[in-house]
């Protein structure tokens, strides 16, 4: 009985492990059974082995040896605590960096460390059960960032601000390091201009600003020309990069996947590129990010073009209104000046008629008769007449005023009072102006 009694709990525990292995064998949940204070991996399901990486998928070794990166993140110490106290531990949405070097990736897990006990109740190991929540975490982050970008577009934030924020968001969301660039197409679609590239060096952005769209012009020029994605996995060997290979090497980029940004009518708006520091082929997550954010970039750029066209139209309308206002004011000024000239001409004509009547008794008065109500004491030197036969003597200044203001007024051709007198009086001015007409 005693022997059977001692063996029964162990057999029950082993059977429970077998049941767990059966339950978790094909599950997407990770499962591993660890033994002893060294946490030796006795068994693990395919999901666990896939999570830690195929290059180290094996059992029979301590977890700290299999996954040394866990020690620095506190997970081995946490296993030690569960093994020592026998108290289970549950973590929610816990961040962990898996592997090192080029294989390193960030992941999130909901997990439980459950102590395993023998027939006497002593802890002999730990069961690890977890579900990776990385995709859920990334999806939540993606939706939050995407919503924020759409809100920026809706409130008409500057295009450069939207594109820069989008580039940083993708760089943060990508599972591996990525450097994002957005180029904007010129109106004629023949060249690409810098839009946003927060992580690429300035000299690189300046060098590719204005590159032509065409077959074989890097990843972006070719994608813009073809209106379809272009994937270059190794810049060092791809002929599309013959003219830019040295530049890419200086910038420290080795792969570039470019997606055209197209308007709803199919016209080219720009390109969206993802650069990598090592040769790489895209995974489905990378392509999905490119498609989602290329569409978002298209929305932002089209909205910017619409707003720019509206602002340009408003500026043109304001300029046209200002021109119309200036023309109307000029027309009003000209009309006022014409009215003033007409009034002055009428007044002078009246003076001439009055002077002509007064000269009936005195053919050549001594003083100017064209000074109007204020009178003029200057000598009467010139005789002016009009087409109606009215004539009057005046001083040089008032006679000139009549000649310039009264339509059809002229210098009367009389002895010492005609053109000869005028030329003798002001020879320099007469030669300069060509002289007035004579009657």
UniProtKB/TrEMBL annotation:
InterPro entries, alphabetized = GAF, GAF-like_dom_sf, PAS-like_dom_sf, PAS_4
Which parts of the sequence belong to the GAF domain? 154-311
The record's listing under SUPFAM superfamilies reads: GAF domain-like, PYP-like sensor domain (PAS domain)
* Coiled-coil annotated residue ranges, if any: 310-355
Instruction: Give UniProt keywords alphabetically.
Output: Coiled coil
**Cited Pfam families:** GAF_2, PAS_4
Please name the Gene3D superfamilies in this protein's record: 3.30.450.40, PAS domain
TM segments?
none
Q: What is this protein called?
A: GAF domain-containing protein
Q: Which organism is it from?
A: Saccharothrix syringae (Nocardiopsis syringae)
The beginning of the lineage is: Bacteria, Bacillati, Actinomycetota, Actinomycetes, Pseudonocardiales
